[in-house]
Amino acid sequence: MKAYKGFNQDLTCRGYQYEEGKTYETDKAQLCKEGFHACENPIDCLHHYSPAQSLYHEVELDGVSDEREDGDTKIVGKKIKVGAKIGIPQICQLTFDYVKSHCTNEHNAEAGKPATAGDSGAATAGDSGAATAGYRGAATAGDSGAATAGDSGAATAGDRGAATAGDYGAATAGDYGAATAGDSGAATAGYRGAATAGDYGAATAGYSGAATAGDYGAATSRGSSASGEKGLSVARGNNVKVKGGIGALLVIAEERSYSYDIKEWKAVVVDGETIKADTWYQLVDGELKEVQE
Fold this sequence. Notes:
Order of helices and strands: EEEEEHEEEHEEEEEEEEEEEEEEEEEEE
Distance between the termini: 54 Å
Strand content: over 45%
Oligomer: single chain
């Protein structure tokens, strides 16, 4: 059966090394004890592997046990084949598809009207509409719409929309949109958008966008990137800037104005002395300079 699995960034899981496209087998499968574990609902992978430190793949699981865990779609099998890598936008869409396929009632509203679904429900609204789904729900709104999903939910809004998901949730907003996800969540915003994720979360923003992640989180943008203590802030583009809390890693790259080639780059750790905490920096002539605000 098709499922989804999180891995460390080197494609290991609990000390076991995997490779994409390969199949692995074991003699026993017992939930949370032995065998190959994965999740039926892709958003549940974020419970077990933080977006800031992990990779996610589609998998095929065979010899699946009948055991199930309350509040999670984690399953275990005797045989696993590691499929293609998936990113946060795909997780959002796949979660929406999963939740919608498990709905027993029709929750969708007519185009332009608000749509609301309960826990584990799927809500979809047309252009300029508003969609709200409860815990583990999936909410999608059209252009200029607003989508909100509860914890472990997936929220997607069109261009200029606002998407909000709770802890472990995934929020995606289009160009100029604002995406906000709670702790361990993932937020993605397009061109000139703003993406914010809580502690352990991952925030990604497009060109001239702003990405902010909490402690131990990762923020990536082509505009301004900020993270909390022991976080990761990455920015690449022209006149981009980064900042972070104590122990954060800052990576900044300036591109040539006539191409996307890297002109200069630098990586530093915020030590509180040479590189100050919670202070914006830009790269000037190969050196980090404080941004005067």
